[in-house]
Amino acid sequence: MYSTENKRIHYFYNGIFYTRKLNNFVEDILFEKLYGGESLLKKILRVSKDSKISFSSSMINENSIKPWLRSGWAIGHKLNVCMLNLKNLNIKNVDGHKNIEIKKLEGEDIQYLLDLDHKIFDDYWKNSKASFEETMKSCNNNYLFKSGEGNDLDGYAILGETRKFTYLQRIGIVKDYQGSGLGDNLLQSVVDFALKRKFLNIKLNTQNDNVSALSLYKKNNFQIMPRKLVIMKTS
Predict the structure, then answer these.
(1) Which CATH number fits domain 88-199: 2.30.30.40, 3.40.830.10, 3.40.630.30, 1.25.40.10?
(2) For position 95, what pLDDT does the model report?
(3) Number of H-type helices and E-type strands within the chain
(4) What is the pTM for the complete model shown?
């Protein structure tokens, strides 16, 4: 009922929500609440216990978690929100980054990106086909940055854009190449592309305990915002 590949909407008397399988590597079910309060959250917690299903919420603002905690949910992951204001930056090296191909993200890219994505991220954070499709729908335009030579890719990034505001939806380097400077090269190519297009800012989120990623973003002038995002879990 809940473990579907794509999002499925559910109507309960006390709320409305989406579910789908998180990915093929963990058993968690994504829970995205559209409407409902503590009675719905308590109901889902009972479903979790009765059916031995672990639900992970979509990202919510840290200031909104009290009803979740009162309902018996627990904090699963904390995420930092980082932002780069592009207005005060100068274009330094547009189109000069080594081995970076930039193109519009298309449906035909998803399959090879899945294979690449699964070489980069730990199991919980690996993308599914459905999550890539949701990424494509979330912004007016999505730009794919491919790091590597030809078909031998070592990383990628996705920059989503809507009305000059941009969101770094995904960025990563294959684990065997992490720490080699490729991530810095990839991120700088994203920033220079955004500057050239006169976008206003770049936002992203990253795990609170991902020290290497936070260091990379700080090095490239991203500011850590005061607010945090949280993923809640039933178990």
Answers:
(1) 3.40.630.30
(2) 54
(3) 6, 12
(4) 0.93
